[in-house]
Write a sequence for this structure.
């Protein structure tokens, strides 16, 4: 009788999980199907029109969905995420129409340096161009931004083979050292070493080191290095999961298999 009641509770639990999952999908999928992705602008744009007197000749775009930031193009080519200059404009755009209002301050070194402006921008979904009118100092300036990546030198700011190899080894050495040190500290306070290794990653990233010493983060983890580290991280994760399976003692699952399966499904 006790076993039957236990099985009935298990069955009721799984039925509840399935019902909650089905209800969630019934709500989320229709909502997700109605969402239109925001049009994207060029990561590095060449500025045409009178707006050059405010934005400069080139401008870099950092965009996350509807949230849009324009920056001065950086020294190493100006592509988003690669040594960006000061932020010029920011705002949001409408997902469906691609139109929005951006506010900002004209870039230094331009004719209208330091003047505040309002930009009625329009993102073209097909060509990735950004058009609009900039209202600054009582004047309306027409501006169009086109993709300038093709015009940029492909080697601008790029690391050579030997330099890239050296940067990768340096980054790996720092990552391993930080993970060992912080992981060891966490072990001393009776916490899982892997949690300390995760904290080490946070300390070396933009959350801490990037705030107080952004130049170090850009030097240690440029885009070329982080792309290689991502591949290495995938191999490391595969090896880690393989070792976990290799060292798993199936005897530990006896009497607790239902709990493990139920927790994973929830």
């Amino acid at each position: 009788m006790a076993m039957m009641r236990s099985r009935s509770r298990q069955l009721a639990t799984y039925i509840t999980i399935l019902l909650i999952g089905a209800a969630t999908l019934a709500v989320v999928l229709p909502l997700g199907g109605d969402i239109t992705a925001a049009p994207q602008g060029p990561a590095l744009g060449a500025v045409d029109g009178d707006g050059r007197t405010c934005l400069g000749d080139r401008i870099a775009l950092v965009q996350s969905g509807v949230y849009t930031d324009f920056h001065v193009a950086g020294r190493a080519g100006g592509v988003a995420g690669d040594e960006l200059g000061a932020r010029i404009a920011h705002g949001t755009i409408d997902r469906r129409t691609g139109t929005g209002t951006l506010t900002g301050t004209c870039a230094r070194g331009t004719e209208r340096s330091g003047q505040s402006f309002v930009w009625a921008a329009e993102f073209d979904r097909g060509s990735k161009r950004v058009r609009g009118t900039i209202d600054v100092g009582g004047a309306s300036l027409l501006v169009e931004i086109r993709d300038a990546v093709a015009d940029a030198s492909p080697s601008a700011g790029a690391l050579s083979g030997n330099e890239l190899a050296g940067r990768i080894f340096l980054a790996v050495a720092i990552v391993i050292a930080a993970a060992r040190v912080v992981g060891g500290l966490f072990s001393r306070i009776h916490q899982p070493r892997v949690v300390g290794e995760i904290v080490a990653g946070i300390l070396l990233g933009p959350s801490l080191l990037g705030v107080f010493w952004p130049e170090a983060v850009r030097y240690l983890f440029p885009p070329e290095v982080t792309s290689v580290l991502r591949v290495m991280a995938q191999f490391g994760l595969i090896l880690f999961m393989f070792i976990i399976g290799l060292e798993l003692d199936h005897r530990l699952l006896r009497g607790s298999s239902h709990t493990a399966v139920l927790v994973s499904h929830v």
Observations:
- The longest strand covers residues 139-147.
- The CA atoms of residues 65 and 150 lie 23 Å apart.
- The chain has eight helices and eight strands.
